[in-house]
Amino acid sequence: MSAELTVTRTARLANWNVAIIAITVLVLIVAAATVDSFGTSRNFGFLVLDLLPIALVALPMTLVIVTGEIDLSVASSLGLSSAVMGYLWNANQPIETIIPLCLLLGAVLGAVNGFFVTFLGLPSLAVTIGTLALYRGLAFVVLGDSAVADFPALYTDWVTGTIGGTPIPNVLIVIVVLAVVFGVVLHATPVGRAVFAVGASEQAARFAGLRPGRLKFWLYVASGLVAGLAGVLWTLRYSSARADNGAGLELAVVAAVLLGGVSIFGGRGALPGVIAGVVLLGALQNALRLSDVSNEALNVVTGVLLIVSVLAPNLARSVLQRRRT
Amino acid sequence: MSSRKPQLVAALAVAALALTACGGGTTKSDTAAGNTPETVSAGTKADPNAPLKEGLKIAYLPKQLNNPYTDVEVGGGKVAVEEIKGEYKLVGPNDASASSQVSYINTLIQQQQDVIVVAANDPNAVCPSLNQARKAGIKVVTFDSDAAKTCRDAFINQASTQGIGESLVKMASELAGGAGEIAILSATPNATNQNSWIKVMQTELAKPENSKLKLVKIAYGNDDDQKSFTEAQGLLQSYPNLKVIVSPTTVGIAAASRYVSASSYKGKVAITGLGLPNQMRQYVKDGTVKKFALWNPADIGYLAAYAGAAMSSGQITGAEGEKFKAGKLGEYTIGADGEIVLGPPTEFTAANIDQFDF
Amino acid sequence: MTAVDLPAPRRSSLDVVLRARELGIVLALVLLVAVTTISNPRFVSGQSIRDILLGTAILAVLAVGQAVVVITRNIDLSVGSVLGLSAFTVGTLLQNNNLPVLPVLLAGAGVGVVCGAVNGVLVRYGNVPALVVTLGTLYVFRGITYFWAGGSQINADELPAAFLDFGTATLVGVPYLVLLAVLVLVVTGVVLRNYRMGRELYAMGSSPQAARLAGIAVGRRTVGAFVVSGALAGLAGVLFAARFGTIDAAAGTGYELNVVAAVVVGGVAVFGGSGTVWGAALGALLLTTIGSALAVLEINQFWQQAIVGGLILLAIGADRLVAVRVAAGLKKRGSHVS
Amino acid sequence: MAAGTPVLRVRAVSKSFGAVAAVREVSFDLYGGEAHALVGENGAGKSTIVKMLAGVHRPDSGTIELNGVPAELHTPADAKAAGIAVIYQEPTLFPDLTVAENIAMGRQPLGRFKTIDRAAMVRQAAQLFTRLGVSIDPNRPARGLSIADQQLVEIAKALSADARVVVMDEPTAALTGVEVERLFAVARSLRDDGAALMFISHRFEEITALCERVTIMRDGRHVSTELLAGITVDEMVRKMVGRDLGALFPKQDVTPGAVALSVRDLSRDPVFKDVSFDVRAGEIVALAGLIGSGRSEVVQSIFGVDPRDSGTVEIAGKALRPSSPKQAMAAGVALVPEDRRQQGLVMELSIERNVTLPRSRSLSRLGFLTGGRERRSAREWTERLTTKYGRLSDEVGTLSGGNQQKVVLAKWLATKPTVLIVDEPTRGIDVGTKAEVHRLMSRLAAEGVAVLMVSSELPEVLGMADRVLVMREGRLVAELDRSEATEESVMFAATGQEASL
């Protein structure tokens, strides 16, 4: 079973990564050519802002999923970070204190996930469904149903603004910097090598002297930290701290990561593919909306893409095998 | 997975605390004064005699789609837009979230609409985008739920806040027989409309003639059918002596009526508030609901279209005192802060409900 | 070496633990009800109990279906969307159209069967993990409902009175919906416990590889489990329509998390092989009761979600600790050749 | 032995996995009332034959006939329906279900309305256990059963099926002498009832005690089928191995140096207890014993991947913390684990990544890995071990067993260990590679590396080791010098009884 299967698997991964990037580029070109005002610089800004939270959260999520785990609590961590930001702002704390505290909070929330998953050895799916409810609930406890606004214009303007006179949004810097950091960590450091090894075979990784538990713990911390950051940016972008900010985002993030060719079983995936997945989802959404296609269609497209991203390579493989025998 | 990370996190925390200790940085009280609202110039002076432009692109962005009340409102808007030979468009999220509305506003800017008629899910969150729209020359008219005053050109108020609040208390008092416990089942705790009505109600209830009415609880059903349903359930359990539930939201009143009509409380607890005749007809006929009120929502959308068109055509700028004609509804005058009041609400009872279909 | 006298088959310690697992939920329930009742005696009034049971009925039907899938080491996140699609289908069928209740129930379940079959076939024959498939169909089924509904809503006054009566009528004080949920629970519970088919589902979840080697028709059973989950979600859609009377395309949005929570709190292991539908139903009852109790206790309703989250963590954490202790106990009870 | 039509007839079956031909044109017959042994070295293709009979694998060519009719064994269910019961090397139980349910799965006794009659099911299980002479509570879950008990449940399962063909793939590996005797009694009664028995074992005394005929396989091919009465153990071994034994094990004599690895009172409940021994530089020490005697657990505990309850491990006089493979690696310990596919290699990763995985930190520059150094290092070490592969970026799973083992060795030798622990270093690899591995170990010892070898292959133990440590049921029961170590003495220590070789 092994030999042939694994050969095609390598090919499959490479293919899918190339395929998803190609599809994304194609969609961008087609959209720019056919959808009015899709290609404008202003729309580019909107597009980047719209996919900002998904893009950020998808980065650590990629690493978490490559180790064979999952973090469904990210959107709730984002919401809690936003709620706490609003709460502290109402309590008249300086924003310069609030932001680092929200990042710290995110890291702590991630650490709680990490604790349950690695130290207690509980399945991450169940744990993070639990913290998904818990963190969102706490966000409501902190801020109730109210919204906090009036964040300083200096900050909100930066988040929605562009670099100098260029049409490049400021937040793109954040995305690019973090994407590079996570990309390098995953693909060009010993930590990244460990991530793949742990995801492909935790036991073999342990026998190679790696510490899967610690690694996963810190990945959850990173996931929480980035979710906290995304919460801060979300709040500043809408100038509105609310407990329900980002609700449901986790599904879009997981969809983007899987669409990017990361195996839900762990051990496989590449960051460029994930970025392509994020951009593809965001661009499709944007273009469809500009063409007055309803949200509903988008839901269907997202769902179908998600399934096809895993199904298509599987089918291709079985067709290939059938032909060979 | 290096051992340096804990130190890093600790350092971050220390840095944060140090900042607090120094007392430096920007706080809410600093910005409250400093955050001058962005003003977008209203453009040239109004010319009351300018003709209404044809082919205006008028887009409606309600709080969310799939809400029957909203459907009636925008339905009225569609009629008006057709009357003035404009292009009608309806977009909106499936969830009542501000962030999705922002994406839609951005899309509408891209599509170079002439007028955006919006019901804000969060008065502040939509502000930056609305101002971007206004900078791009789009007129912004809010309805249903206002956005911050600094980021829209006009607000269509379904009725004066005072009028609705008073009429809600009047109905409650009649149904309670002038004395007893009443409770409010509202939309979300930060819903602009509901909160201002509740404020008026509270002032009214404080008056001596209403001293025997006791407001025991304000519950929030989040304009979610099921949530409202369970909240009504909770109210009746917690307050056995409750006489009236006042629900100033169409979702809430329908849910509460549905619960009561099928429960043992029917006939003992009265429901009133703001509701849609079509949704309430059944409960009025089976006696659960004696009376409730509402303005004609279709007229709101209708008025909004005319206000937006008048503004886009340069007839008005949104300044207080300006007048414009709104088709079959006649002439309207813009009030303070760009508010345009539709008119007094209608009361519905078993006697008249069959005359209305919305 | 002599033939041994076998000890009479005795209740194993694990059995006791499993019972204790469900006992734990019952205890939590009793405690919760007691505390709430002390603060407000009307909490145990007939109407209040009826309301809680009605609320539980829908969640429990979903939880039973979910438990069947989870026991086979899969998950079905699409149940909320299936419920929505089924509720809207039923609403449309009944819109100004007086059909008897039974065909309506079947129609709702039928919608669910189709959805469940799609999930099952993709999982089994497409080799796509259940999490991915049902996450995808969560979007797809919901999208289809929105397409179809196009923003319309079906109101109670458009539904035949007979159907709405079904939502509120009772038999000796017990609402029909609750009876239906109990029926579903009992049938599924008995099949899972006392029929070969049911035991094979446990076997598949306990060790997929061993199940294949044991000649279990893993493919058929997997599809079957998803079909059951879909059918029950479809049925829940009918119950939803009957209870709430107002149906729009958003019906049941976000239900999947409550359902998974109920199942996990009810002691069904997320990695399959153990747990019962009774536990899942109890989990649903506990979650619903917490919701009602918070309103009565006038605790900020915002705590509800946080409490649910905490409960999930508590449940899986406690299960883990118990499992470790039981495993240690079992190891010491090896066999002995006499 | 009954004559007439064979119950099972295997005709010229072949099966390949990718480029590897596991079974080539193998034919043999099984008669009712016969106990038939299948022997061969590890990797000879025995397990593949078993899996084809079980319906897990389908033959690429050739046929399997049951009672003279070609059988299509596409799925395990087909095999089960055809009356073939298989007892696997590794038990395949459902941990969450009770023992009784495990036995009855798919054949549960039914009561009214086709419901499962639990009482009858438990009774059946109890009767089977009585027949086997063991006491396992039918109501307990399978989780937590010892390997031996699991094996017994598997046997009960096969018994309950009333199978016409019972295939036993090393069922006795983890059983004690008494349990083996009992099993054989049951097997004989099955055989006398007319069932055909296929028995796979590495213990020749068991084969001769139970079976009438033997089929010998080598490298996926059928070598011969003979009456056991007409063949000696020596001849059998020669046919299995296909060469002279002596030349295989080129251990050079080395004068041992200082103590490199010192283990004192190492315990881990319930796997092993009070294990103490030393390994000196330049020495090869073998850890022998039956499967399940705790050998692998001991070395895993030394390396730190498994925890330990008490005891000390010192490398060149320096104590190792428990549960820290990282520290063990830093101290110069390397472990080539027992299970290559699960423990030794990350099968989905490339050859290059596998070879450099333990060293990725030391190969990085300023914390970054750009690929070049890893590639160069991987090439250097795979070449040193003459590994055959297409490209370094190929998944390691695409290699043959022998080359996979070379990758594992390359991976660990590259860490320049002073203490090399190898667990079953030649399991499932071809003869040529086996010799290479042995030469390599010998050379390493000559260079002053202390080698601790766990092996179940007695000839390998006797040929390679300077000293043999024997474990039985978690305890170190004997230490034999090269001169004292014979198959008899090792087996005696390992089983605690007189072996009849």
TrEMBL record, chain A:
The chain crosses the membrane at residues 16-35, 47-66, 72-89, 101-122, 171-196, 217-236, 248-266, 273-291, 297-316. Keywords: Cell inner membrane, Cell membrane, Membrane, Transmembrane, Transmembrane helix, Transport. It is found in: Cell membrane. It is a multi-pass membrane protein. One of its GO terms (molecular function) is transmembrane transporter activity. One of its GO terms (cellular component) is plasma membrane. The keyword Membrane applies. Pfam families: BPD_transp_2. This is Autoinducer 2 import system permease protein LsrD. It comes from Kribbella turkmenica.
TrEMBL record, chain B:
Residues 27-42 have a biased composition (Polar residues). It comes from the Bacteria. Residues 26-48 are annotated as: Disordered. CDD domains: PBP1_ABC_rhamnose. Residues 58-315 form the Periplasmic binding protein domain. Pfam families: Peripla_BP_4. Residues 1-23 form the signal peptide. One of its GO terms (molecular function) is carbohydrate binding. Transmembrane segments: none annotated. InterPro entries: Bact_Solute-Bind_Prot2, Peripla_BP_I, RhaS, SBP_2_dom. One of its GO terms (biological process) is rhamnose transmembrane transport. It is found in: Cell envelope. Keywords: Signal. One of its GO terms (cellular component) is outer membrane-bounded periplasmic space. Gene3D superfamilies: 3.40.50.2300. The keyword Phosphoprotein does not apply. This is Rhamnose ABC transporter substrate-binding protein. It comes from Kribbella turkmenica.
From TrEMBL, chain C:
The keyword Transport applies. The chain crosses the membrane at residues 20-40, 52-70, 101-123, 130-149, 169-192, 222-242, 254-271, 278-297, 303-323. It is found in: Cell membrane. The keyword DNA-binding does not apply. InterPro entries: ABC_transp_permease. Pfam families: BPD_transp_2. GO terms for cellular component: plasma membrane. Its main location: membrane. One of its GO terms (molecular function) is transmembrane transporter activity. Keywords: Cell inner membrane, Cell membrane, Membrane, Transmembrane, Transmembrane helix, Transport. It is a multi-pass membrane protein. Part of the ABC transporter complex LsrABCD involved in autoinducer 2 (AI-2) import. Probably responsible for the translocation of the substrate across the membrane. The complex is composed of two ATP-binding proteins (LsrA), two transmembrane proteins (LsrC and LsrD) and a solute-binding protein (LsrB). PANTHER family: ABC TRANSPORTER PERMEASE PROTEIN YPHD-RELATED-RELATED, AUTOINDUCER 2 IMPORT SYSTEM PERMEASE PROTEIN LSRC. This is Autoinducer 2 import system permease protein LsrC. It comes from Kribbella turkmenica.
Automatic annotation (TrEMBL), chain D:
GO terms for molecular function: ATP binding; ATP hydrolysis activity. Residues 8-244, 249-498 form the ABC transporter domain. The keyword Transmembrane helix does not apply. It holds the Pfam family ABC_tran. Keywords: ATP-binding, Cell membrane, Membrane, Nucleotide-binding, Repeat, Sugar transport, Translocase, Transport. It is found in: Cell membrane. GO terms for cellular component: plasma membrane. Its main location: membrane. Coiled coil: none annotated. This is Sugar ABC transporter ATP-binding protein. It comes from Kribbella turkmenica.
